[in-house]
Amino acid sequence: MSSASTTTTRPPRNGVDVPTLFATLDAVKAQPEAARFQFRAVNRWISGTHSRTTIHGFFGVGEEQEHTSAYTYDADHPEVLVGTDKAASPVEIVLHGLAACLTAGIGNIASARGIELTSVESRLEGDIDLQGLLGLSDEVRNGYERIRASFTVTGDASDEELRTVVEQSRARSAVLDIVTNGVPVDIDVRTG
Amino acid sequence: MSSASTTTTRPPRNGVDVPTLFATLDAVKAQPEAARFQFRAVNRWISGTHSRTTIHGFFGVGEEQEHTSAYTYDADHPEVLVGTDKAASPVEIVLHGLAACLTAGIGNIASARGIELTSVESRLEGDIDLQGLLGLSDEVRNGYERIRASFTVTGDASDEELRTVVEQSRARSAVLDIVTNGVPVDIDVRTG
Predict the structure, then answer these.
(1) CA–CA dist A77, A79 (Å, integer)
(2) Which chain B residues are Cβ-neighbours of A81 within 8 angstroms?
């Protein structure tokens, strides 16, 4: 053990800047109002079931923020559902958000615990009976009945440690909470 | 009124092939098992909080289906949340899916009712207190506390008719159901 201070700059672990991650946690602990965020999306209909969403500004850490660029994403229905299949469908986009949220959590948590990840892969499946949204049955819900997510995680830690990383990501995932527990949605309509 | 059959091909209304839409409804009515769909997403971690989802195959109408191409979408956390901001964040992606689902419904329902839409725009906002997902408070949930969606719809129909189109889309939206009512999610973990 040496008492000499080390000034070596370590590369970010798994691409995560761990000192800044911990500093951010400390800053939010000291000023809980910094944790109040608002995320936004603006969508424009293009044609049929095809639309485009732009995601740029958000609020957080007490002030307006902007992504490094404005991100645009399309959505459409597949042809078998009378769409033009210009992009993934809205229900598939929900799977994308869920997978990405759990995976980002795995990246952060593994890094905070000093685990070098080699790979994180997941496959999500959502079962849906379209009799609900097609208005053909009032006993069938509109959305997914069930979602299954299968993760395969490899890294320089024991199976047990890797599993607890996934478990902690699950325990703190924003999108998993949204998708499993539901969120109140207010819809306001203006006509031109 | 003429008894002569007309063979004029009308252009799709709002980009929606309405005869095929109604034929699809009739086909599902006759064979409810055709309505059982499974949507899928495969996600791979890239680095830090950055991951990429591929969406290609799905199951429906009794057989395996494929989108016209494999769609890939990235997700990341913004820099203020110690990400690298290569794409929208997972919670923003949920807003995209919700906006796109309600908008696709508006396109289909307006078309089925003979309404020509001029524009559909929506702005979604989701409020979230990050003390939850950062693990700094057990009293704060991980996900959105509330989502607001503001739609502006214009077309060749009365305000009342346009409002009922939005209302019907809300009543039959898959993603609105998922987000407001929640879905059971099973997570399976394998380690390498």
Answers:
(1) 7
(2) 24, 60
